[in-house]
Amino acid sequence: MATVRFTSALQRFLAAPPTEVTAATVGEALAAVFEVRPALRGYVLDDQGALRRHVAIYIAGEAVRDRVKLSDPIGPNDEIYVFQALTGG
Amino acid sequence: MAERLYVGTRKGLFELARRNDVWDIVATHFLGDPVSAVLAEGDTVHAALDLGHFGAKLWRREGGGEWRELTAPAFPPKPEDAGDDPHPWSLGQIWVLEPGRVPGRLWAGTMPGGLFRSDDGGTSWSLNEPLWRMAERRQWMGVAGGEQPGINSVLIDPRNPADIRIGVSTAGVWASTDEGASWRIINRGMYNEYMPPEQREEPLVQDVHRLARCAAHPEIVWCQHHNGVFRSEDSGHNWREITAIRPSKFGFAVVAHPRDPDTAWFVPAIKDERRIPVDGKVVVARTRDAGKSFEVLRDGLPQRHAYDLVWRHALTIDASGERLAFGSTSGGLWISEDCGDSWIAPEARLPPVSVVRFADH
After folding, report:
1. Which candidate from A14, A47, A50 shows the least CB-CB separation from B74?
2. With CB atoms 3.0 to 4.6 Å apart as the test, which of A6, B160, B237, B315 could cross-link to B326 if both were Cys?
């Protein structure tokens, strides 16, 4: 199974533990997590379901390419990292 | 009179209470997070956060208990034929929260220009589709050169909650008299200096920074506009410029006296790219004669090398009309208990202030 891991910056607002999922794409993997934790969805995706501008997802060390439809494929044992692109002061 | 004040800042929400005649911070909430809007009604407080990475959020606290996150307003799926819409169909920021004058009803004005309504005290929200789907909405201009317009003011007629006015940055004043089922732009008499000459008086290009309405005489509406101060005596249809304001006519904030239709307060600054107080002195301008003349109030305010700017939601008044408060981009916070004649600064060095709100209205 693939594992979705969330930035610790999210833990300040809500629980986001690592979650094992069976999925073929990034979008499916996230959907599987949001099924269990619906409140997490709005922190990662915008109202149209695209990745938020200042959130990044890496799979096996590479940034996902399709930030709108989240169609990038994932392997059965991939680690999917969801984290924030740091800004601000 | 209000005994509690909420101050939303770039880095948290600060709760002040008046004890033994002294205002002091009694609690901090959401430390480190940007607060974009606050509404306090009795002991129910709503706070909107603008988390840079993770989007706009809405939280509620009741009776001094724990904060609970609510489902924030969200836009519906963008249809295929809306592909050329210049504004995103996704919540950017909750900019203003107002009570709907009907039990359970709240309105939220947002960037990118969506108006949302809740009929269950903020638990669930729906987009006002007639306003959002109006063709003219695509002509709304973004705030400060950004891509997103914003609804900065929502005025509900206390006598008739179906009668609504909204102020838009940047798209003038819009009215609905049927609870939001239909909308039309109504402002006449404003002008916008930075537009080309033939466009200056167009209602749609008016850069309305903030609207304020006299609760007891709702037909009286005040406007701090990008290039001046205006007053309407017919619920926002026709406007007259008020040129007597001192020391300058630029600013963002305005509040109206809840009962006296001739009294309002502004916080002027140098227009418009510089955006600092005139001569480095923080002052409040008050009129008590419908704008014919102004008093410049400075007792208790910094009068030397002060460069505080006051944003549109960072000036507020309580239901008594005696207590006012305002906060600045430099983290200044001042409270008056005598209609602005004198001001006190609670002991604090706050982050930049975006919104202040007393807990009584």
Report:
1. A47
2. B315
